[in-house]
Amino acid sequence: MEEEILYKIILVGESGVGKSSILVRFTDNTFTPHFAPTLGVDFNVKTIRNKETGQTVKLQLWDTAGQERFKSITQTFYRGSHGVIVVYDVTDPKSFDRCKNWVEDINQNTQDGMIIILVGNKSDLTSQKKVSTEQGKALADTLNIKFLETSAKENFGVTQVFDLLVQDIEAT
Ligand code: GTP
Ligand code: MG
To answer: Which residues have a beta carbon within 5 Å of ligand 2, which is an ion?
Structure first.
């Protein structure tokens, strides 16, 4: 029998940027416009197949709460993780500005070489977009991490985030 590969992935970012929505889109292929803030941390599992190797990879997905009062809980979840997804909302510059703090926080609480992806979510809201794709890319370049835009609502870019993450984890 094949050895099972398991990667621990964490989603962080400000409250309301769409972390839970990205995960629900990825695991259940559904979306709800109703906002129910995550309390503490939620957990989910999804098995995917690596297209190149054919290997089955189990993803242990930790969905953290963006609200400030849960921040110390979030920090304890970095330990033992293989990859972190830092999410902002493209209509909310404040959530974008906070991303460098999230990445600093990750780097301070994990070993060197943690795989981090910056994700600009809600790309469907084109007329309300305030953080340009170029700004997202530029920040990711500065922080030396990868970057993608997504829409959990329209199922744009979501599987790519996890594919890219797994690719990068396996390349290290
Ligand atoms: P916390 O759990 O508090 O940290 O928030 P969160 O980052 O998990 O945000 P959540 O996924 O709960 O989404 C917040 C709100 O944004 C909800 O009302 C979602 O329906 C909405 N939302 C999430 N993703 C998208 C998207 O891609 N497009 C649009 N238009 N709305 C979205
Ligand atoms: Mg949430």
So the answer is: 19-20, 38
